[in-house]
Design goal:
Number of strands of chain A: 6
Shape of chain A: globular
Oligomer: homotetramer
CATH architecture of chain A: Roll
Distance between the termini of chain A: 30 Å
Strand content of chain A: 35-45%
Largest sheet of chain A: 6 strands, antiparallel
Order of helices and strands of chain A: EEHHEEEEH
Chain lengths: 147, 147, 147, 147
Amino acid sequence: MSDWPDIAGRNLPDGGHVLPVRVYYEDTDFSGAVYHANYLKFCERARSDMLRISGIHHAQLHGAGAEGRMGFVVRRMECDFLKPAHIDDLLDVETHMLEASGARLVLKQTVKLGEDVIFSANVTLALVDGRGVPKRLPNDLLERLKR
Amino acid sequence: MSDWPDIAGRNLPDGGHVLPVRVYYEDTDFSGAVYHANYLKFCERARSDMLRISGIHHAQLHGAGAEGRMGFVVRRMECDFLKPAHIDDLLDVETHMLEASGARLVLKQTVKLGEDVIFSANVTLALVDGRGVPKRLPNDLLERLKR
Amino acid sequence: MSDWPDIAGRNLPDGGHVLPVRVYYEDTDFSGAVYHANYLKFCERARSDMLRISGIHHAQLHGAGAEGRMGFVVRRMECDFLKPAHIDDLLDVETHMLEASGARLVLKQTVKLGEDVIFSANVTLALVDGRGVPKRLPNDLLERLKR
Amino acid sequence: MSDWPDIAGRNLPDGGHVLPVRVYYEDTDFSGAVYHANYLKFCERARSDMLRISGIHHAQLHGAGAEGRMGFVVRRMECDFLKPAHIDDLLDVETHMLEASGARLVLKQTVKLGEDVIFSANVTLALVDGRGVPKRLPNDLLERLKR
């Protein structure tokens, strides 16, 4: 199949990243709205694609590079569920980096329906090695993230 | 945000439809591959977007139109899980209609990784009203599907 | 089938509630551990079963009672992901009510593997009517919760 | 926490196995019923617990035993979605082995609401090694399954 230019979202002029996410059957619950835990999935997709656009791939991190096996894990999320979303809605997931230091990334992620912010989260990630021990963010990874 | 032209996939020259699906953390399990039930989610996304491109929206079907509340339900799926997919893979979900008659749609759906077919399913859908009773496919819906 | 006495967990002597949750394939991701968003699902199951044991059922809340349609929605969650869990693990989800007033419930929920706390959350719930407008917690519901 | 005697379901007098599954928010979609792909999750939970009761654990299969790394993968499922289930429903997932030979297990799984069969599937599993190559079912595994 031909390429899909926007499949990993787009970088924003302010240094952030935006990923479009469609609401499907699987995302909703019997109340008629999106099930609350699924916003965390949408945010994880956006983080993965922000990394991807920066040239950082999970499969590579988890493979055995010069640094050994690595991966990001979520340490803390503060989540505000502000308004409901519904089937067929097209959402924008915006991600901005607030802090990158030591073994830690702090991000602000919002889910928007048009101009309305319907979900907002502060997310703390840690980089860990294959045994779950925190690792300092390698310089080349930091540089890629800051571009 | 600006528009995302390919967000609902594309129609194929042979009358089918193709939707790109990225494999994220949420889709995998500890074996390292995509969790088997998630292929059914990928197929449902593709069916929804094939309908969407044809101008048919779940929210409208479920709203009270002239025909009353309606929705598609899956009656039967024959699924072959042929090869594994992994994190970061970009899959193509192809959908072709085999039959549309009475209250029933029969579709062939395949999930491809490059040229490899990794999942294949025959799917029978029924159109039902708000009480779950099968309804004949309305003519305008049939015409839209056959274009 | 005969009854399943513990299917909704048990009340704890301190007024809390505990629900056992088994980790299955669907709960894990390719890192080998439980996918982070799934802890929110485990907590929601525990809240539902704590309500169930108190005689409060979602289907009834959502049905049209004397008070009209109602349901709980999650407004805020502060989540700490402390340690990983793995396939086949048997987890305990403990729920304690911190506050019940106005339209708001505040709960503390922890997920334990043996004596280790592996996930912890402060959860704010709101009771809303069919249009999403907050409703005061009815007295009989408050009394049931406080027993 | 004290033990949960029925957490892995029970063996049936006819050689089958039954697992109770509660329908939670996460299992439903905006149509009001259980999302179709989730029946596959329910069936996978039941298969895991049937194996568990027989003394076979995924973590052990995936660990490096005398036979090397192994795991079951789903090769084919023929699924009939017969009736809807709803929030709060308590379902029984019944599993019977039809065939165990070579590298292959064939199972019949049904999901019941009271006496009504609401979902039915024929499931073909294969035992594979760490590279995905089919392996003959070891004799001790076969004997455990047949007890």
